[in-house]
């Protein structure tokens, strides 16, 4: 079945360009468009897309708040959010990741990267452009509101290998890269990542990366 995509951007010409790129792919279907966050919420409820391609800076409701409502508690469907940004070090991107976005993409990325990003997020990999994601976390980790501190001892529920995997996820490595680093199969890595998410009550790899920073397991700038 085709991946159902909702385009959310306040610039009609950009939406048209994205639509032309995505509709050329047999496994992707653009099911709707929205010009701001409020329209996006209505379209998500009505169309049940698999992936929402979300701009950040929009009138009425920005992409961060829209992302929070789409992916937060009581959400109406399984839609994943892929955030679009003009700058690769935009603090709003970090806010969007914390709000529940599965990853982000630069607006000037090549067409093939946009297509691949949609597929990656739809598949649940949820860690697009890991090297840039890590740069963002490194740059803004000390500015992120901490909220509630991680439950003391929560990391103790993880095995030694699961802690290793969590550290590598936080560094922005893909499953293939983690597998190569630890000399195990990608299937084994996926299993470890799944255990980490379940034990820590996290939704995806992005939340796991943020958790690793906030818990002190990984420090900004650390290799």
TrEMBL record:
<dbReference type="InterPro" id="IPR011006">
    <property type="entry name" value="CheY-like_superfamily"/>
</dbReference>
<dbReference type="InterPro" id="IPR039420">
    <property type="entry name" value="WalR-like"/>
</dbReference>
<keyword id="KW-0805">Transcription regulation</keyword>
<dbReference type="Pfam" id="PF00196">
    <property type="entry name" value="GerE"/>
</dbReference>
<dbReference type="InterPro" id="IPR000792">
    <property type="entry name" value="Tscrpt_reg_LuxR_C"/>
</dbReference>
<dbReference type="InterPro" id="IPR058245">
    <property type="entry name" value="NreC/VraR/RcsB-like_REC"/>
</dbReference>
<dbReference type="Pfam" id="PF00072">
    <property type="entry name" value="Response_reg"/>
</dbReference>
<dbReference type="InterPro" id="IPR001789">
    <property type="entry name" value="Sig_transdc_resp-reg_receiver"/>
</dbReference>
<dbReference type="InterPro" id="IPR016032">
    <property type="entry name" value="Sig_transdc_resp-reg_C-effctor"/>
</dbReference>
<feature type="domain" description="HTH luxR-type">
    <location>
        <begin position="151"/>
        <end position="216"/>
    </location>
</feature>
<feature type="modified residue" description="4-aspartylphosphate">
    <location>
        <position position="55"/>
    </location>
</feature>
<keyword id="KW-0597">Phosphoprotein</keyword>
<keyword id="KW-0804">Transcription</keyword>
<keyword id="KW-0238">DNA-binding</keyword>
<protein>
    <submittedName>
        <fullName>Response regulator transcription factor</fullName>
    </submittedName>
</protein>
<feature type="domain" description="Response regulatory">
    <location>
        <begin position="4"/>
        <end position="122"/>
    </location>
</feature>
